[in-house]
Design goal:
By secondary structure, this protein is α+β, with helices and mostly antiparallel strands. The protein folds into three domains: about 170 residues, no CATH class; about 120 residues, 2-Layer Sandwich (Beta-Lactamase), CATH 3.30.450.40; about 150 residues, Histidine kinase-like ATPase, C-terminal domain (Heat Shock Protein 90, 2-Layer Sandwich), CATH 3.30.565. It is about 60% helix and about 15% strand. The chain contains 15 helices and ten strands.
């Protein structure tokens, strides 16, 4: 018995508890009105209403019965009130309880249904009675039924608001639980959640199994483009996989591995094969391999497909983790940008207006000169804050790429700081993972900021070459060059940490003719600018001098 009662208590909805309190209050009001009303007290109908209220307030183990209970309560209460002669007006306030319960527990339709049931039962009972109802009785019944409709609709609105709040809270609870599990799983995984490292590991395992010469793993990126994540047996291949035609398209459509005579790289003897990375029936990537030797056996192909399917889950999970991390980083940077803009930037700008006012009221030239110097320094600080806000809000967009983000950034910096920026972009049709592009953009921002703030440079040379999975980034300036690092300077360390996360090489050296050169090389044998390359100048700020 106690166990059953415990289950019932756990099943009680907060809305049902509110309705039970309302029932008790309205029943007390009806009893008070009956005592002070003229004429005989309707003790029998009042006792029956009390019984209905108790039964309607009992917790029920089944939700379907609890939803239909307000309608049954409306019918029972209306029948009790209508059966009394004369009509006990002191009991009519109870007509609002059932619509309120229906609105809170089910919604507006149930609330209207309960009010309609009350009106129908009262009308039929009174018109079928020996004495037809008077106009006054019809008016007072209509008033209380109308009030019940309004009360029920208010209850339905409260239910809708509460439901939205619970859903929002439930969403955050679910997100917290999933992120906590993701963190724990990420810590426990032997190879982490880096999709590039996972892709390289599966290619190495498949090469050991199949003995091919060259291979590449492609994952589907934004827009349905297949993006190379890793190569094996070579630094780069010129394969152009597609999801809608050729050997690659057939494997993508069917999800089954296909082996053919010939190689991807050239018109040469050998064999090639393509495998789908499948999550259930959904392809998420492709693996292409080739070798100069003979064909692979059916057993080898089957084993390789099993390895690809196993890798698909890991690689797709790594991409999801990178996306979640990128979204969290972007939101945090935007929050910081808002705080700087709405906080310290506004306060410093206000100080500038105060200095302007003091300068206008200054009596001697020396004071005005000193105030102008302070005003210039405040203007410089505001400009730095605006550039910092721009840094924080600059991001790699899914629809664009590193080149577009870098171009927008250097143009704004060049215009705002007076630097002449020379920009070279060389991007292939494929893209790096957005997480890698974002890290490269942050390194470029830090290097450009150092040149702008500390190097006293006039020219800035920015070179970016992207040929996934390789990339090369160079930031050069004609400033003061390398000096002794300040104790509170962390720019170089931050850039090294970002490159370390990417697995990229980071170098800093002096520029011939003065200045500093920072280079980031991602991937094996990343393409570097050739000595004969001519830099196409982009004039930003000062005139370009070649």
């Amino acid at each position: 018995m106690n166990r059953w009662m415990g289950r019932l208590r756990g099943a009680v909805d907060p809305a049902e508890a509110i309705v039970a309190v309302v029932r008790l209050g309205v029943l007390a009001l009806c009893a008070l009105l009956s005592l002070i009303a003229e004429g005989p007290t309707p003790r029998g109908p009042l006792l029956l209403l009390s019984l209905v209220a108790v039964l309607a307030s009992l917790p029920l183990p089944t939700s379907s019965l609890s939803r239909s209970r307000p309608l049954m309560e409306a019918v029972a209460v209306s029948a009790i009130i209508a059966s009394a002669v004369p009509l006990p007006e002191s009991l009519l306030p109870y007509l609002v309880v059932a619509p309120l319960a229906a609105g809170l527990l089910t919604g507006p339709v149930a609330a209207l249904s309960a009010s309609a049931a009350s009106l129908l039962v009262l009308s039929l009972a009174r018109f079928l009675a020996a004495d037809p109802p008077s106009r006054a009785e019809i008016t007072v019944i209509a008033q209380w039924v109308g009030l019940g409709v309004a009360t029920g609709l208010v209850g339905a609105w409260a239910r809708a608001v509460s439901t939205r709040e619970r859903q929002a809270s439930s969403t955050y609870v679910t997100a917290h639980r999933l992120l906590t599990r993701l963190r724990d799983v990420a810590r426990a995984l032997p190879s982490g959640l880096d999709e590039v490292a996972l892709a390289q590991a599966v290619l190495a395992a498949m090469r050991e199994e199949l003995g091919f010469d060259r291979g590449a793993l492609y994952a589907r990126a934004e827009g349905g483009v297949l993006m190379p994540l890793a190569y094996v047996g070579t630094d780069h291949v010129d394969w152009v996989p597609t999801t809608h035609e050729g050997l690659w398209g057939r494997v993508w459509a069917t999800g089954r591995p296909i082996q053919e005579l010939g190689v991807f790289s050239a018109d040469a003897d050998g064999h090639r094969a393509v495998f789908a990375l499948r999550l259930g029936d959904r392809p998420v990537g492709l693996i292409g391999i080739e070798r100069a030797g003979g064909a692979w056996t059916a057993r080898q192909i089957d084993r390789a497909q099993i390895m690809a399917d196993d890798a698909a889950l890991r690689i797709d999970t790594g991409q999801l983790f990178s996306e979640v991390r990128a979204l969290a980083t972007v939101e945090e940077r935007r929050r910081l940008a808002r705080e700087i803009h709405d906080g310290i930037a506004q306060e410093v700008a206000s100080l500038g207006y105060i200095v302007d006012d003091l300068s206008a009221r200054a009596q001697d030239d020396r004071t005005r000169t000193d105030l102008r110097s302070v005003r210039e320094e405040l203007t410089r600080i505001v400009s730095e804050l605006r550039l910092s806000i721009f840094d924080l809000r600059s991001d790699v967009q899914p629809a664009a790429g590193l080149g577009a983000a870098l171009t927008s950034y250097v143009r704004s910096v060049g215009t705002g700081s007076g630097l002449t920026v020379h920009l070279v972009l060389d991007e292939s049709a494929f893209r790096l993972p957005i997480s890698a592009e974002t890290e490269l953009l942050r390194v470029a921002q830090e290097a450009i900021t150092n040149a702008r703030k500390h190097a006293r440079a006039r020219n800035l040379w920015v070179t970016c070459r992207v040929d996934p999975p390789r990339a090369f980034l160079r930031i050069a300036d004609d400033g003061r060059g390398l000096g002794n690092a300040r104790a509170d300077s962390y720019g170089m360390d931050i850039m090294r940490e970002r490159c370390s996360r990417l697995g990229a090489a980071f170098t800093v050296r002096s520029r011939v003719g003065g200045g500093t050169v920072i280079e980031v090389t991602l991937g094996p044998g990343a393409a570097r600018p050739r000595e004969g390359d001519r830099i196409a100048p982009v004039a930003l700020g000062h005139d370009v001098v070649d």
